[in-house]
Structures are given as C-alpha cells and as structure tokens.
Amino acid sequence: MPALEIDRLSKSYGAVHALRDLSFDVHAGEIFGFVGSNGAGKTTAMRIMLGVLAADAGEVRWDGSPLDLESRRTVGYMPEERGLYPKMKVADQLTFFAELHGMSKADASAAVERWTDRLGVGGRRGDAVEKLSLGNQQRVQLAAALVHDPLLLVLDEPFSGLDPVAVDVMSDVLRERAAAGVPVIFSSHQLDLVERLCDRVGIVRAGSMVATGTIDELRATGEAPWLLAWSERTDADAVRAALAAVDGVTTTAVPGRPDAVHVLVSRAGAEQAALRAALAVGDVTQFAPDLPSLADLFRDVVSEEAVAPAEGSAA
Amino acid sequence: MSPRGPVMLVARREFGTRMVTRSNIISMAVMVVVILAAGVVGKLLLADDAPPQAMRLAVAPATSEISAHLAVPGTPDGGGIAVEELDEAAARAALQDDDADPRLKAWITGDAVAPTVVFEQDPDPAVVALVEQAARDVATSRAVTELGGDPAVVHAAVAAVTVSVDQVVEPEGELDGGQWAVAVTIISLLLFALIGSGSMIAMGVVEEKTSRVVELLLSTIRPGQLLAGKILGIGAYGLFQMAVLGGALVGVVSALGLFPDLDVDLGAAFVLMIVWFLLGFGVFALLFGGFAALVSRQEDIGSVTTPLMFALFVPYYATLFLVPFQPDSTLVTVLSQIPLFSPFLMPTRAAAGVLDPWEMPLALALTAATIPLLVWVSARVYRRAVLHTGGRMKLTEALRVTNG
C-alpha cells in the first residue's frame, strides 16, 4: 500500500485552475521527483499536502487516512518561499521548530546539534539567521525540515541555491532518509539531479500529472533511436549513403554531433544490418541505443503543452 | 501534543525573543532609573516647600491685654501666630531686620480697644482684620466684666457657633490636583503600553508574513493557535513592562512619601490599572493582530494600524478632557460602559472616587464579553489573510464566507 496518496486534488484561484484532478502515490522508502515547468502546480500541490492551502476537491491520505494536523506534525517541509525568523539565532530557531513538531526540549537540542553539524552550519548556531549567507540560510532551512526526524519529507526546490558540496550532503541525507523507510517528495528543475536521485518521477503539466514512473519506464515510452558515431578518418557522406541504402533504416542528424547520426529502425534486426553497412565504409566508434534523458522527456512534455494550448485553458 | 502545547510554545518564543534582547533590557533599566531619579528630584523640590511658619506679631507692653485674643486658630496660612512683647524701639528695629526668620509682621500699640497696627511698609489687610477681631474681643470682655458676667463663658459660647451650608442645585464633582495627576499617569501608562504591545503584535504578524516563516509555521499549527500564542506572549511582555514601570512609580511615590495629601489609594489604582491593561489589551491586541494580517510588508503596516491608533487616542483624550470636569455626568457614565472607552475612563473615575457601585462590575463584564466576539472576528480575518501576499487585502474580502 502506498504510504502517501494524492487523490484527485483540484484547486482554482478565481478563473485559474492551478490543479485539476492531480493524483499520484509515493511508497515508503521511495524518493519521488516532482517536475514540471514554472506554474505547473507543484508548489500548490505541496502546500495542500501540508495543509497550508485547502483544496477545492480531492484528498491527501497518509497510511490510508486523511493527512490531518496531528500527522502533519511528523512531516518535514521545506517551502518554496524560504522562511525563517531573521533575527532569531539558528539554534533557538531550530529548537523552536523541533518543539512545535512535538519533540521534548532535550531531544530538540540534541537533534539541532546533530543536524547543524551534519549540514555544515554547526559553527553558526549562535548567530542570527540574517547574518548567514544565503547558502547557509538554505542549509538552516533544510535543518528545520529534518530536525524532528520526520516520517515524510516534502521539499519544494531543496537544491536551488546550494553549492555542489551542499548538494552532495543533501543528496546523501535524502537517500539515507529513504533507506530508513521515509517517503521523500521533492520538486526540482535540476533534472540531472532528479534523474540521479529519484526512484520515481512525476511530470506535471497545467495542474495534471502527465507521466509517472521510474526513469526507465518513462524512457521506454516510444522507440529509442540508435546512435552511430564514426572516427575522424571516416568519410561521413559515405557512411550516410551506406546507411540510407539499408532496408528498414532511416537516419536523422544529431544536434551538435557532426560525427554521428541517429539510426531509426522499422523492422527487427535492421540495426545490425545498418552497423555492418557502416563498418564496411569506415570506423564505427560508438553504436548504442540513445536513451532520452529526463530533460529530453521533460522537453517533450513541455513542447506538447506548447502545441496544445487549448487543453490548458479548457475545463 | 496537547492543543495548548503549540500556543504556549509560540507564546514563549514571543516573550523570550522580546525580553532577552540587549535593547529591551537597557530601555527598561533606563526607564526605571528615570522614574527613580524623577522621584528623588521631586522629593527635593517638594522639600523646599517647608511647612508654614508661625506669623510673628509684637505687642507694646501697654497693649498686652490684646495678646490673649490674637492667638486664634485659623490664620491665613495655617501656621498659627506667635505673639511677643516689644517696646517701640525694639519693634521698629525688628520690623526692619532683614536677617530675622521669621520676620516680625506687625507691631500693635495704643489702647487695646483702639489699637494702631504698625507695619514695615505695606499694611496686610488680613493682619488688620485679625487685630480688629482681637480688639472687639477685648471690648466684649470688658463690657461683660462690667455687667458682672464671665467673659470666658461668653467666648466659649461664641466659639461654639457653627454654620452649615446647603445647596439647592448639587454641584458637579471635580477631580482635585492629586487625583488628576494619578489619573493622567495611569491612562498615559495604559496608552503607552497598549500602543506598544499593539504595534509589537502588528509588526510580529507582518514579520512572519514578510519572512515567509508563516508558511512553515502553518504546516504544523493552526492559524488561531499562532495568533493566540503571539497575543499571549506579547501580552505577558506588555504586562511585565506595565508592572515594572507602574510598580516603580507607585513604589517611589510611597517610599519617598511624595504627595502626602494625595486622596487616592495608590495600591488600588495600580491594581485597577493592571486589570484594565489586561482587558484593554484583550480588545486591542486582537484588533491589531487581525488587521495586521491584511498587509504583507512592514511599510504597509501604517495603513491598518492608523485607524486602531485613533481608536486608542479618542478614548484617551476623551478621558483627559471630560473626566476632570464632569467625572459623573451622563455622557461620561455612558461612555464608560463602551468597551473601547472603558479601559481609559474606568480607572480614572475610580481614582476620582465617583463611581456608583454597579458601574465597575458592569464595565468589566461588558469589556470581557467583547473579547470572545473579537477572537472570532480576528481569528477569521487572520486565517484568511495570513497567507495572502502582495498588496493589501480588503477586510470585507477576509471576512467573506468561503473555505480556504
């Protein structure tokens, strides 16, 4: 059974439909990447999960029952709009948030010490938040989401504004929480990170989930072309001509790669014939299925959105 | 966690972050020192106002019969009269003696029933009247003795005369100077504390919106709990300020024995001030908290707090101008029962001692009853407006009945 179920959420701001029947599940111990272009509804969905906004329709369930105020205390949340008390000291502030989430004073202090050290801001515990650099404020913000040992993590753009070292620490923390059985949802525009970290990904467009699944599942949609590249000594025109002559094979140019083509096959085994034909006229340096990156998939979704604007304004 | 848990946590944070700042500790210390210093300076200045000395009069030996009749109580400045016997030369010298303290006021000579009063320069009509009365008493004594009577009996009978006064139209009560001073001090402290804590609440609400920390808070606690905690914490801080400053004031006045003639029970006035601070705070804090949620930036706070400042200043000035001259007029009595006015009018009128027994309990009950109503309105406005960002939200919009 999924730990967290987002069930047909809808939300409108006046005439703008921010969410329409948005549904997805996150399982225990799973890192779920939430991607979509700006304004697609990611932040609205997360705010509704945390009860900061009320949905017009739909429900968020946690272990089968609605996610209420009491169970929201066990959630670690990092809002898109970062926010901490600017004049309050780092340790005081984190202790306050830990206690609000139901920790005892002693547990809170110990957790604050542990997390500030882990996130590299242990030396700044006695400083007011406003005195920290933006990057360090970001780390404190993350500590605020983690300090109470949450049973569910909802993080809106947790990687934005972090340096590479912090990104690594953050990635480790997310993996570690997931390994402990905590479902983790995060949104990001850094798709390479999402691809690397997430067990499953959901792509949102105009308030609806248009694709969910593992990266491999998403890639499996549609035939992947083969990438065929050749050495410098090889005559490119001869290769192209040889490939064009193979039955059941078409080629397309690869953007930015004058030494390669995409080979699309329309009958089983045609790629083997294409490889032999290419080898007959030159040196092949690379021949492999060219799986789309998440960025490619994402771009496809966005371009679909661009060609079908009518869908976005209907309903 | 119990539902009271988060409210108390928020309250503790509000109280703690305000109390334990260097600026707060310094400003409180400075204010207490100023009050103590003002008390000591006041004591020194008031001490110059020494108790009135006896008026010094002299009588020529031949006129000494009048002396016994001069020593009447109730002289103009209340200091009594000291009478001595001097001959003409000594008296003339004493009248011009600049170093004498007290200086000889007048010398009485001639026949005891037709005396001459000698002054250094300007005759004092009060002294002349006094001597005239004494001479009449001498004449009366002589006549009574001649008629075979006892002058002492006659004088005792005359002294026993009393005159009572009655009026057809009852005068309106007025505050005396001491009551007025106490009343102004109380309501000024009250105004200071209510404006101070009201602004603190407004700024606290907007700070949470500006810094966006409110979103993190509201993912854990209800808006009502956040507002309640904020009001409790800042209220406790305001009460602490009020108790320290008011206590210092009362302490200084009683310890140094300033204003010995004060016709006000300072301890009771202090307690009333605290009670009305709590009630006034209940009313105004809720208004400040709810209204402040309508704006998102510190620079917009003025647009929502200005009407509330008016709501504080109008009762303050009404109290300042109405109560001294007509503390028990119908207008003042009615205004005293209106919750926004009661916190200022009631302690002032109580200090003046013009309250009918029913007035204070009714005003307390009415103001206390307003608070739950304001809790409902403020929590509603706050809940709807606190996550609204951008321009100012209209009050009507915040009150509209929709979910969200």
Structure explained in plain terms:
Chain A has 315 residues and is α/β, with parallel strands linked by helices. Chain A contains twelve helices and 14 strands. In chain A, the strands form three sheets. In chain A, strands 6-7-8-3-9-10 form a six-stranded mixed sheet, with helices on both faces. A four-stranded antiparallel sheet of chain A has the order 2-1-4-5, covered by helices on one side. In chain A, strands 12-13-11-14 form a four-stranded antiparallel sheet, with helices on one face. Chain A is elongated and about 75 Å long. Residues 308-315 of chain A have low confidence and may be disordered. Chain B is 63% helix and 6% strand. Chain B contains 15 helices and four strands. A four-stranded mixed sheet of chain B has the order 2-1-3-4, sandwiched between helices. In chain B, helix 3 (67-70) links the parallel strand 1 (55-59) and strand 2 (81-85). Chains A and B meet through helix 3 of A and helix 1 and helix 8 of B.
Going across the biggest sheet of chain B, name each strand in turn: 2-1-3-4
Spans of chain A of at least 5 consecutive residues whose pLDDT stays below 50 are 308-315
Unreliable stretches of chain B (pLDDT < 50, length at least 5) are none
Widest sheet of chain A: strand order? Answer: 6-7-8-3-9-10
Q: What is the helical fraction of chain A, as a range of percent?
A: 25-40%
Mean pLDDT of chain B: 83
Strand fraction band of chain B? 5-15%
The ordered string of helix (H) and strand (E) elements of chain B is HHEHEHEEHHHHHHHHHHH
End-to-end separation of chain A in angstroms reads: 31 Å
Q: What overall form of chain B do the CA principal axes indicate?
A: elongated
Number of helices of chain A: 12
Largest sheet of chain A: 6 strands, mixed
What's the helical proportion of residues of chain B?
A: 55-70%
Structural class of chain A: alpha/beta
Extended strand count of chain A: 14
